[in-house]
Write a structure and sequence with these properties.
Blueprint (H helix, E strand, L loop, with lengths): L1 E4 L2 E9 L3 H15 L2 H5 L2 E2 L3 E8 L2 E8 L4 E7 L2 H13 L1
Antiparallel strand pairs: 1-2, 2-6, 3-4, 4-5, 5-6
Length: 93
């Protein structure tokens, strides 16, 4: 999904996984693609929750997963404050 807010374009992706093992495999691969292996290792409590925030190509990226329902979220855009607001809205969902 794409959103326009405060003059910026934001992308939101939500993915449901069939099982927690596939989710965790995807999570560690995703975080490793944007950081080093050490950041990936400490980015999650396996099967429960994971969170990763960084700057990528001069844009802010925030990703997290909830192991309870096997959902993965990522929000990408120019302003951290708007990303945090979108994240709050998605976590209520």
């Amino acid at each position: 999904m794409n959103f326009k807010k405060n003059g910026g374009l934001y992308e939101v992706h939500v993915v449901h996984f069939d099982n927690p093992f596939t989710l965790l495999d995807f999570w560690y691969t995703f975080v490793s693609d944007y950081s080093d292996g050490l950041a990936a290792t400490f980015s999650a409590i396996p099967f429960i929750y994971g969170e990763y925030n960084d700057e990528y190509m001069k844009m802010q990226i925030s990703a997290w997963y909830r192991g309870v329902n096997n959902l993965f979220f990522v929000v990408y855009g120019p302003k951290r404050s708007v990303i945090n607001d979108l994240k709050l809205q998605l976590n209520r969902w």
